[in-house]
Amino acid sequence: MGNMRENTETAKKTYPEIDAIIDEILGKSGRQPRNIPLTSTEMPSLPELRRLTDLLRSVFFPGFFGISGLEAQSARRRMASVLDDTFRLLAEQIRRGICFSCLDEDGEESEICEHCEDTAFDMASDFIKRVPVIRDLLDSDVLAAYEGDPAAKSKAETIFCYPSIHTMTNHRVAHELYNLSVPVIPRIISEMAHSRTGIDIHPGAAIGEEFFIDHGTGVVIGETAIIGNRCRLYQGVTLGALSFPKDGDGNPIKGLPRHPVLGDRITVYAGATILGRVTIGSDSIIGGNVWITSDVPPGSRIVPPRSTEQESTDKLSG
To answer: Considering only CA atoms, which of 48, 26, 23 is closest in space to residue 36?
Structure first.
């Protein structure tokens, strides 16, 4: 009883302070705070987008997630149901993303929002048509993970356990949505994988077949990066940009190609940093902890420079 009375007294003393804080955040006139859109527009839903990626994972890998233990005909009906749910959920989230992105500075919907629903329906339809293509790309990624890691006992193990496959599932989805000019949603899907695996791939990055990231943590791949077929990266690799060109007002110019281009059959070892719009020729090997800001010819083998201490040790041992 005494504790209840003390808590009540504490609450009475706290409320005036809370009101003052709220006044500072919102302003006494109730104006819109910076970076917080006070609007009736529904925001994209993180739980629903997680559900979306789970549904798609069950379509890409039936028997592993969601759709399993069914006869062939039952599995077909189940997949049809899952794809229908996916389409409806995706269309709604795209609609929310479009409406959110076209809010004006006062948090009001612009005229574009009158067509949000139709546009979202068309984008979701176009995405669903690409699901078989995404499935094929992910099959190639699974093959790359299995063949590229002697510790992998089976392809199933890579699907269930490997951060590369989890990340690439999200990325393949996000990249298709990015190519359809869907706002916001691709980045959210990419960041879901980033937060879980530590692999940060911008949805704009174009990645070819049979791609594998061994271990994975700390890998960064920028928006305009292009990676060819049968490439492999190790942990801590960065495919980033150098400086950002600016317009007359001093603002960074968006969308310019500014990240590396990797050819086919390239391996980049742990800790390597490749910056700027440079091209790494096919069949090259980039050693660990190197720093590259210029083009590399095809078939190259780039290794860190030997230190003076290392050279001295070699001479003594010789």
So the answer is: 26
How far, in Å, CA of 63 to CA of 135, rounded? Answer: 14
Query: Using an 8 Å Cβ cutoff, are 166 and 193 in contact?
Result: yes
Model pLDDT, residue 40: 55
- Specify the pLDDT at position 313: 47
Residues 6+ apart with CB under 8 A from 181: 123
Selection from 244, 239, 175 nearest residue 206 by Cα: 175
Q: Helix/strand/coil (H, E, C) string of the chain?
A: CHHHHHHHHHHHHHHHHHHHHHHHHHCCCCCCCCCCCCCCCCCCCHHHHHHHHHHHHHHHCCCCCCCCCCCHHHHHHHHHHHHHHHHHHHHHHHHHHHHHHCECCCCCECHHHHHHHHHHHHHHHHHHHCHHHHHHHHHHHHHHHHHHCCCCCCHHHHHHHCHHHHHHHHHHHHHHHHHCCCCCHHHHHHHHHHHHHCCEECCCCEECCCCEEECCCCCEECCCCEECCCCEEECCCEEECCCCCECCCCCECCCCCCCCEECCCCEECCCCEEECCCEECCCCEECCCCEECCCECCCCEECCCCCHHHHHHHHHHC
Where the chain has pLDDT below 50, the residues are 104-107, 312-313, 315-317
- C-alpha to C-alpha distances, 105 to 19, 37, 110, 198, 288, nearest whole angstrom: 26, 9, 10, 34, 46
User: Which pLDDT value is given to residue 304?
Assistant: 87
Domains by residue range for the chain, with CATH: 39-197 (1.10.3130.10), 218-318 (2.160.10.10)
Instruction: Answer whether 66's CB lies under 8 Å from 82's CB.
Output: yes
